[in-house]
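Milestone M4 deliverable, item 7.
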Amino acid sequence: RSVSPVFNLREVPVSDGGDFTGRVLAEALGARLYTERVADPLGRTIQAEYGIAGRTAIIEMASASGFKLISDKERNPERCTTHGTGQLIRAALERGCTKILLGAGGSATMDGGSGMLEALGFRLYDADHQLLAGGVPALGRVKQIVPPDGWRADIEMVVMTDVDNPLLGENGAAFVFGPQKGADSRMVAAIESGLENWVSVLEAISGLPVRNLPGAGAAGGLATGLVALAGARIESGADFIFDLLKIDDHIMWADWILTGEGRADKQSLSRKAPEALAQRAAKAGKPVSAVVG
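Output delivered:
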């Protein structure tokens, strides 16, 4: 605007399931914000925010189980769990919500969502029927998962992922994201083995093929248990949010589109918001520029 008054600007905050997904969706849906006392990735009590619009809860796992809650020195996926994310979901269900929109990006965790299931009342047992605490150490030992009494079957869950990686293999959770979360080579191998056992148990219980679902590797396998045991579905966070925001209408309006993210690297091409936006803009013949950190 300082260059020429003829420029018309339209700001459209977007996300892809990662950080700030909660705020973007809360604004789009007119949600009321709540805070809840939950465990951070290392079990310390914090205040985490979530939103409710009607009977729909908007939960950003990063607010309870995210990188931003721990220091670089504290990164250790063998100690970090998703328990706090489960506490947020439980709080939303207790407030009468029947639909959960769960953003699964920005996590510090690799526990397959076992800590989250534990917080929701699911019980994990080993081969000797000993109760296990949710977390990476339990993944390779769990043999049985028992749902809580009265688990509600009417809950709709959408897990919005900011990457499309599978759970296992060289493009899976342990090998791609483990080192970022503080895992050394020993931990990466142990997590891969644990997730293999974890998903095998989930598939045996549910009869559903979970391991190869696009996005199953996001957030350390967070969605796997919810898909297998709670009827959840995985969605590309960027596409889900773009459709909700009617982003294609904004693209058609624009002559030039500016976007960005904190860092551009190989993962930017795994359904992060800038790539998803660029693909939609390309179909409309509109140029896109990204400003990155």
